[in-house]
């Protein structure tokens, strides 16, 4: 099973990029069904990321970043490099997807994805707003295209394995 999760806040301009890509991927899958692929919009709910990823072999997370890099820059990072155990807190909003990766691996062990890839798109504008900046929209299109290619390849690998000789 391949699980793809988009994260972000739809009310914060470029921060919505992961959610918007996930929504586009859901429409893509509605038109081109792939039984071994799931796509979720998890917004800002890190705990939701942890539970939706459970049971998958491969996980892709898509989110905005704010590192001071060139707006629209796309970073493809192995999940292991971004895992971080959460700081003690009573507020679930403080539990982010990077915490979900570390906690999910610790809690679910073998039932958590071994292969995790994170796509981060550098934001230009994180202020209140409902539109992506042009630069981030162009990068979102590139990530969408790359992930749809992964979906096609993933499905093709499974059908080759499942096809009797």
Describe the structure.
It is a single chain. By secondary structure, the chain is α/β, with parallel strands linked by helices. The chain has a single domain, classed as Rossmann fold (3-Layer(aba) Sandwich), CATH 3.40.50. It is 39% helix and 21% strand. The chain contains 4 helices and 5 strands; from the N terminus they run E-H-E-H-E-E-H-E-H. It has a 5-stranded mixed beta sheet with strand order 2-1-3-5-4, sandwiched between helices. Helix 1 links the parallel strand 1 and strand 2. Helix 1 crosses helix 4 and helix 2 packs across helix 3. It starts with a strand and ends with a helix.
Q: What's the short story on this structure?
A:
By secondary structure, the chain is an alpha/beta fold. It is 39% helix and 21% strand. It has a single domain, classed as 3-Layer(aba) Sandwich (Rossmann fold).
């Amino acid at each position: 099973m391949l699980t793809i999760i988009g994260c972000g806040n739809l009310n914060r301009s470029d921060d919505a990029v992961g959610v918007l890509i996930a929504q586009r991927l859901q429409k893509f899958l509605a038109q081109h069904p792939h039984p071994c692929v799931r796509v979720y919009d998890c917004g800002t709910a890190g705990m939701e990321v942890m539970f939706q990823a459970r049971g998958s072999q491969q996980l892709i997370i898509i989110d905005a970043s704010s590192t001071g890099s060139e707006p629209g820059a796309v970073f493809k990072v192995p999940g292991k490099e971004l895992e971080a155990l959460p700081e003690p807190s009573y507020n679930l909003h403080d539990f982010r997807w990077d915490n979900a990766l570390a906690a999910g691996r610790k809690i679910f062990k073998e039932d958590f994805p071994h292969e995790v890839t994170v796509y981060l798109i550098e934001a230009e504008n994180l202020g209140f707003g409902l539109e992506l900046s042009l630069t981030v929209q162009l990068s979102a299109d590139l990530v969408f295209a790359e992930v749809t290619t992964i979906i096609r390849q993933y499905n093709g690998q499974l059908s080759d394995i499942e096809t009797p000789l």
